[in-house]
Write the structure tokens for this entry.
Amino acid sequence: MCMDYLTRILSYISELDEYKFFTVCRSLKLNHLSFADDLLMFCKGEAKSAYLLLQGLKLFSETTCLQANRQKSAIYCTAMEASEIERIEQFSGFKREQLPFRYLGVPISPKKLNVVDCDLLVEKMTRNIKWEDLCRSKKAGGVGFRNITIWNKAAVAKLVWHIGCQKDDLWVKWVHSFYVKGRNWWDFPAPPGASWVLKYLCKVKNDLHQLDMANWSMMNQVYSIKKVYTDMRESIREVTWASGVWNRMNLPKHKFILWLGIQGRLKTKDTLFLHGISPDNTCCICGNAGETHDHLFFGCEFSKQILYARLDWTGIPCRPRHYSNG
Ligand SMILES: [Zn+2]
């Protein structure tokens, strides 16, 4: 609500004739962004507009008693005259820092983000993701993402198989006449002078020897990338809860929350407390116990009431007593 008040003050300032927007924000009439207790304010690179924004912030502080932390505040200038920068430094009292800076791990820069900036961002976002888990089939407890490394091998293996069963194809004929020369393709090693493509095909052929493609081709089967992909993946035990999560009656958002919850990976307060993010681990609803997955879904009195009412409504007679990912 407080930030709503600040937005109203800054919107009022943006209507003043003396205030000038930062170029790309003019059409959106955007002069600030706020997230939780962080605030970014921006305007044209001139002292007058910056002064007006700070006056707005001052009014907000005097009304709400919320002060900007000077240690954590800074001004950032780009393509501005030195005299203007000096004036802003003087009346704001904030120190000047250089662009780019990082906010929530994202580089904030007046220029386009480069590859290195994006790499760091992607690395940060994907650091805690276990791709092997996500790439498992839904029946095996994953999300069913395709493992593209394995899929690529299965697709390349289609060419290996075409060579093996001597498909009527100009390229296959060329490989046989130029390299294989009547020998058995399934035992054929890539010669040192062979092209990169042939060397890679031979490598994939060796990697896939457990699938026994030699016999497979003799049986004249139709090659299916999907089937080979499935065969190449380790067989993983199926979970009992998959159909409860991924059935058509569930909303996508609920499916994902349930999938996380069953594996105990929701950001419950006991986890947040453990990582020093939450000051306590008490259940927000009842305040009588620690907020674990078990408590939140089955132990908490409020949750129980909802759950039992729902079970009665749907006519399901069971009474779950504890949380389990079996
Ligand atoms: Zn509770």
